[in-house]
Amino acid sequence: MRWRHAVFAGLIPALTALAAATEDAGISVRDAWVRETPPGMAMTAGYMVLQNKTSRPQVLVAARSSGFQTITIHRSITKQGMTGMEHSPQVELLPHASLPFAPGGYHLMLLNPKRTLRAGDRVDIRLEFRGGLVLPVAFEVRK
Ligand SMILES: [Cu+2]
């Protein structure tokens, strides 16, 4: 029986790699928007609904855009009646689940926009996931 185990041990990693390749497109984003910035405002926030259509967890690890100096992933939290924000180095999406980035919760913190953002403008942001998947998303600027 020992040789059979050896065969299975060799097969399983190959099957896993195949599944990863076909499921990589299984993350979608909807309702992506960025809050309008008053002139001189050095930061704003981006919101969206992420949906993981795959059967594996997916992990958002970074967001980048040529329109901002820096983008970090934040979460608004309330502790002992005080509201603040904390940096989230990564956000895990559970299999077959959606996760909202919304006021009062997760958001993309967008620092130092290179131009004033007005309602109706479009902002392109690339979302980077663990494993190398990059998802370009067009965010609409809203009031
Ligand atoms: Cu923030």
Describe the structure.
The chain is α+β, with helices and mostly antiparallel strands and about 140 residues long. It has a single domain (about 25-140), classed as Immunoglobulin-like (Sandwich), CATH 2.60.40. Helix content is about 15%, strand content about 55%. It is built from one helix and ten strands; from the N terminus they run αββββββββββ. It has one helix at about 1-25; strands at about 25-35, 45-50, 60-65, 70-80, 80-85, 90-95, 95-100, 105-115, 120-130, 135-140. Strands 1, 2, 3, 4, 5, 6, 7, 8, 9 and 10 form a ten-stranded mixed sheet that branches. The longest helix is centred in the first third of the chain and has 22 residues, at about 1-25. The protein is globular. The N and C termini lie far apart (about 65 Å). Copper (II) ion binds near residues 74 and 109.
